[in-house]
Amino acid sequence: MTGWNVYDEEEARRDPAVRLRPAFQLSIADVRPAMLARFASWRGIPGLLKNSEAFEARMEAVTTGKKARVDFKRTFIRFIKSRFPDYPPANDTGEMFRCLKPLDERLALGINWTHKAAWGLGKMLHVEAGARWDNKTAAVYHSLPYFLGSPEPVNWAYISEEDLDACFEGAASFLEPLLPMLTEALPKRMAVDVDLGGAGPVSAREGYAIARRLVDGIVPSPDANGSASGMELQNVQATLGTGLRWGASFSPEGRVRAHAMWVYSFKGRAGDGASVSVPSLGDATVAYQANWGMRGDSIREPWIDSVDAMAVISSSGRVLEGAVATDLTLGYFPPYLESPTWRSDHWVLGKGLRCVFLVDARNGRVVWMHP
Q1: Per the structure, how many domains does the chain have?
Q2: Are 371 and 345 in contact (CB under 8 A)?
Q3: pLDDT tens, 79-97?
Q4: How many angstroms separate the Cα of 301 from the Cα of each of 132, 232, 254, 283, 310?
Q5: 251 lies in the same domain as 308
Q6: pTM metric for this prediction
Q7: Which of 179, 168, 160 lies closest to 125 in space, CA to CA?
Q8: Is 306 within a domain?
Q9: Residues 138 and 175 grouped into a single domain
């Protein structure tokens, strides 16, 4: 039985909606060598630019008066019918155009084509490839550089219809070899007897040990505080991956569940940063950004584990009867406390009742409860 109050870890690990994200990650690993043989880096994808470069290109065009009227939708539909007829548009929001190709009754590959407003400058294009299970039950998408092992944020920029055609052709040069290989690899990886690996039902500190090793490997430079990368922890959150029907992302004991992951945010002193996802099922991943948008103080040692925070909350006697813990975050929550704090939200489902707990992450003391 599934739901918020009844949970079976082994049954969840067999659920295709839960398996989609890690299976897609393994499929990417399967096809990456062949893609790297064609594209040594994402710079080999025609016309593709770093976010900052695309922004500068659009700024230069706007400030110098270079402009042309372009019917994005008409140009896009013509392109899809010509180059990807087996990926017909399935969704159109006016900004994002989703194309899907069913692999069986419930599994599909997809391409997201996003026509970005780009900070009001317009005429930027972002493309992602991914997979979906049972329509909207589970979905995972990645930008094209990710398939080559790079988390670099990228976009195309254009002025005229001819420029836009060139952007589409650049994306097609990458997607045409990629998608057939994913079509073959993904169903094999989705099989229930395939070991998808993963950290298992780890606590926040157990997951942090994994995240720390990964983030220290991306920018190797000695640091006086013991961080080889100079990256400092900024936030920790238990969050869902796929399989929303399995309910909360963590157990009452404070351990991440099969359909979820710990996400660790780090910031560097040079304005850079990284987000590390440590899932229960599947490989951990790092997304690095040279221009890190997240702000806030660093979380320094000592800080108590999620299992200790949840134990303190459980023993407080203030959890509402029938309440389920739904959110768990380590961060800063002024004005209640100026030091790192665990926040846990509990809901009595169906009644709209909620209780919130803040626990001092230095010493495990409950500093605020509501009600």
Answers
A1: 2
A2: no
A3: 999 999 999 999 888 799 9
A4: 40, 11, 19, 26, 19
A5: yes
A6: 0.84
A7: 168
A8: yes
A9: yes
